Amino acid sequence: MSTPVVTRFAPSPTGFLHIGGARTALFNWLYARGRGGKFLLRIEDTDRARSTPEATEAILTGLTWLGLDWDEEPVSQFDRAGRHAEVAHEMLASGHAYKCFSTQDEIEAFRESARAEGRSTLYRSPWRDASPDTHPDAPYAIRVKAPLDGETLIDDQVQGQVRIRNDQLDDMIVLRSDGTPTYMLAVVVDDHDMGVTHVIRGDDHLNNAARQMLVYRAMGWDVPVWAHIPLIHGPDGKKLSKRHGALGVEEYQRMGYPAAAMRNYLARLGWSHGNDEFFTDTQAQEWFDISGIGKSPARLDFKKLDHLTAQHSSVADDAALLHELEAYLAATEAPALSAAQRDGLLRAMPVVKEKAKGFAQILEKAHFILTTRPIEPDEKAAAALDNVSRSILKELTPRLRTATWEREILEGIVTEVAQAHGLGLGKVAQPLRAALAGRTSSPSVFDMMMILDRDETLGRLNDAIT
């Protein structure tokens, strides 16, 4: 029986949920969910100076908005410091680690001298093979014993087989002289104790894998499957930074992108399934595999994101889309919808969501149902309501009042009135649109008439005429 898949996302709570971190979380989530496994969350909060509860909350909020649910309670790395120290002492007892009494001043003096002489600054502790009899009564760090020759092989599912010369590995510290564990130790202990089978993370951690394997082997633990994914670059091919635009996930929510489109887009950043661009969560979970991740950095492309957003908006469930739109309004601190606006928007959703590139565009298209009488036309709409147009609307209104309120019948009546004046349908539709929406750009006038219904449509036309 195969071991159940367990993946994890382990952010440091020092700021917002970065778009690159969000993609890493998504890849781990997809891999676990597609195999009936677990997706776990660990907050790497050992850096007490920079870790904040607010940042932890921002990360959890970002993951929740993105729709990435995790199994079990999030683990705090800081809370497990006692367990990390226990493992360091186990390695010490088994001879896989040793006490190092070198001070920071001694280590820095060595490195300065090495730099001046052009030598390697890799520190080799004189305490590695020292007899316990020579140990002073002083604070000590615990260092793991790295092999001195040969190679360490990292079998990476994305990068292939990576070889690291062991003479490039130092005897890394696993427990500092003040008794606090290092990040390198904590990560391994936590991954082992959490049962993590696959470590999917950024390729900036690739060299860390060789060093972390020292702990796995010293403890006789199974090494997880490694998959180090390339980072995300900006459209110019350079490392992602503020100059490229939004870096935090919450910024994308405030920009009005629906979560489903973000999941689809992030999944395609560096991973592919044939030529498929648009897909559902179910398809992504079924298709996602590490073998589909490329070795080259992915490039952020807002045009692709907009295109996917339009596709996802068109097929989204109306009520779910409205719920997410209200969350968008809250995130941008915009006024909440009234009960009447909410009901109207839900009726209009099939029309206004079509090919919308985000919630701002949905709201713009839905202006006609969100506004109330008397309609205040903008400058272009006011210009469309000249005396000639008003007289045509005046002629049209009584016919609409007695008509059966069906789209085809309404379209037929407007067409007849237009033809009677030797005009095309569009020439009458434009002042009609201006009267109903107060804009010259809106959904189809007949869609608006059906959504507004008879009384509201006639009321708006009468307002425009008078």
UniProtKB/TrEMBL annotation:
<comment type="subunit">
    <text>Monomer.</text>
</comment>
<keyword id="KW-0030">Aminoacyl-tRNA synthetase</keyword>
<dbReference type="GO" id="GO:0004818">
    <property type="term" value="F:glutamate-tRNA ligase activity"/>
</dbReference>
<comment type="function">
    <text>Catalyzes the attachment of glutamate to tRNA(Glu) in a two-step reaction: glutamate is first activated by ATP to form Glu-AMP and then transferred to the acceptor end of tRNA(Glu).</text>
</comment>
<dbReference type="InterPro" id="IPR020058">
    <property type="entry name" value="Glu/Gln-tRNA-synth_Ib_cat-dom"/>
</dbReference>
<feature type="domain" description="Glutamyl/glutaminyl-tRNA synthetase class Ib catalytic">
    <location>
        <begin position="5"/>
        <end position="306"/>
    </location>
</feature>
<keyword id="KW-0067">ATP-binding</keyword>
<dbReference type="InterPro" id="IPR000924">
    <property type="entry name" value="Glu/Gln-tRNA-synth"/>
</dbReference>
<dbReference type="GO" id="GO:0006424">
    <property type="term" value="P:glutamyl-tRNA aminoacylation"/>
</dbReference>
<feature type="short sequence motif" description="'HIGH' region">
    <location>
        <begin position="11"/>
        <end position="21"/>
    </location>
</feature>
<feature type="binding site">
    <location>
        <position position="242"/>
    </location>
    <ligand>
        <name>ATP</name>
    </ligand>
</feature>
<dbReference type="GO" id="GO:0005524">
    <property type="term" value="F:ATP binding"/>
</dbReference>
<keyword id="KW-0436">Ligase</keyword>
<dbReference type="GO" id="GO:0005829">
    <property type="term" value="C:cytosol"/>
</dbReference>
<dbReference type="Pfam" id="PF19269">
    <property type="entry name" value="Anticodon_2"/>
</dbReference>
<dbReference type="InterPro" id="IPR049940">
    <property type="entry name" value="GluQ/Sye"/>
</dbReference>
<dbReference type="Pfam" id="PF00749">
    <property type="entry name" value="tRNA-synt_1c"/>
</dbReference>
<dbReference type="InterPro" id="IPR008925">
    <property type="entry name" value="aa_tRNA-synth_I_cd-bd_sf"/>
</dbReference>
<dbReference type="GO" id="GO:0000049">
    <property type="term" value="F:tRNA binding"/>
</dbReference>
<dbReference type="InterPro" id="IPR033910">
    <property type="entry name" value="GluRS_core"/>
</dbReference>
<protein>
    <recommendedName>
        <fullName>Glutamate--tRNA ligase</fullName>
        <ecNumber>6.1.1.17</ecNumber>
    </recommendedName>
</protein>
<dbReference type="InterPro" id="IPR014729">
    <property type="entry name" value="Rossmann-like_a/b/a_fold"/>
</dbReference>
<dbReference type="InterPro" id="IPR020751">
    <property type="entry name" value="aa-tRNA-synth_I_codon-bd_sub2"/>
</dbReference>
<feature type="short sequence motif" description="'KMSKS' region">
    <location>
        <begin position="239"/>
        <end position="243"/>
    </location>
</feature>
<keyword id="KW-0547">Nucleotide-binding</keyword>
<dbReference type="InterPro" id="IPR045462">
    <property type="entry name" value="aa-tRNA-synth_I_cd-bd"/>
</dbReference>
<feature type="domain" description="Aminoacyl-tRNA synthetase class I anticodon-binding">
    <location>
        <begin position="325"/>
        <end position="465"/>
    </location>
</feature>
<keyword id="KW-0648">Protein biosynthesis</keyword>
<dbReference type="GO" id="GO:0008270">
    <property type="term" value="F:zinc ion binding"/>
</dbReference>
<dbReference type="InterPro" id="IPR001412">
    <property type="entry name" value="aa-tRNA-synth_I_CS"/>
</dbReference>
<dbReference type="InterPro" id="IPR004527">
    <property type="entry name" value="Glu-tRNA-ligase_bac/mito"/>
</dbReference>
<comment type="similarity">
    <text>Belongs to the class-I aminoacyl-tRNA synthetase family. Glutamate--tRNA ligase type 1 subfamily.</text>
</comment>
<keyword id="KW-0963">Cytoplasm</keyword>
